[in-house]
Amino acid sequence: MSVTSNQIRCYELSPGAPAQGTYEVAAGSTLGFTAQSSISHPGTLQFYMAKVPSGQTASTWDGSGNVWFKIFEQGPTITAGGLTWPSQGKSQVTVGIPKSLPSGEYLFRVEHIALHSAGSAGGAQFYISCAQINVTVSACAISTSLSTAGLMISRAVVAARQALSCRFRELIKRLTLES
């Protein structure tokens, strides 16, 4: 597969065909892919996500544009004995969805770059798959993206209050369910 091809985004067996469905996942949960056979070549493993633009859906958007962000990268383990690749031989790979991710629809992409033939131009092999997901955020999720020190301190106080309030609500729910 050429790195200049649109197929490098989310390899499609039938380009233009509608996707199977959009899966709902909570921010902070673990998500992954299962291969039909194990990852048999040495190489790097990455996970990427792209937020679906407003007015579009994950099942129809093609992932175009400078919108992808990496959430995980796994390179080699280097020892005196050489390199080993943690993903090699695995049939399932997983990653945690960032807890701070805003809710909404995303494309979720796994990429394994096989390096066994990478000694020549165009020799690296890309194994890519995507899923359509709708990320949900807990009512107790707290955003901490402020920049100045004064605001960070005030935000920390607000966050602590929100966390206590959230824990109190969760305790009330549990007590109500146990009654």
Automatic annotation (TrEMBL):
Keyword Disulfide bond attached: yes
Protein name as it appears in the record: lytic cellulose monooxygenase (C4-dehydrogenating)
Keyword Signal listed: yes
EC number from the UniProt entry: 1.14.99.56
Main location: secreted
Domain Auxiliary Activity family 9 catalytic: 2-140
Lineage: Eukaryota, Fungi, Dikarya, Ascomycota, Pezizomycotina
Keywords: Carbohydrate metabolism, Cellulose degradation, Copper, Disulfide bond, Metal-binding, Monooxygenase, Oxidoreductase, Polysaccharide degradation, Secreted, Signal
Pfam families: AA9
InterPro entries listed in its UniProt record: AA9, AA9_LPMO
Enzyme class label: oxidoreductase
Locations listed in the record: Secreted
Family: Belongs to the polysaccharide monooxygenase AA9 family.
Reaction catalyzed: [(1->4)-beta-D-glucosyl]n+m + reduced acceptor + O2 = 4-dehydro-beta-D-glucosyl-[(1->4)-beta-D-glucosyl]n-1 + [(1->4)-beta-D-glucosyl]m + acceptor + H2O
UniProt cofactor(s): Cu(2+)
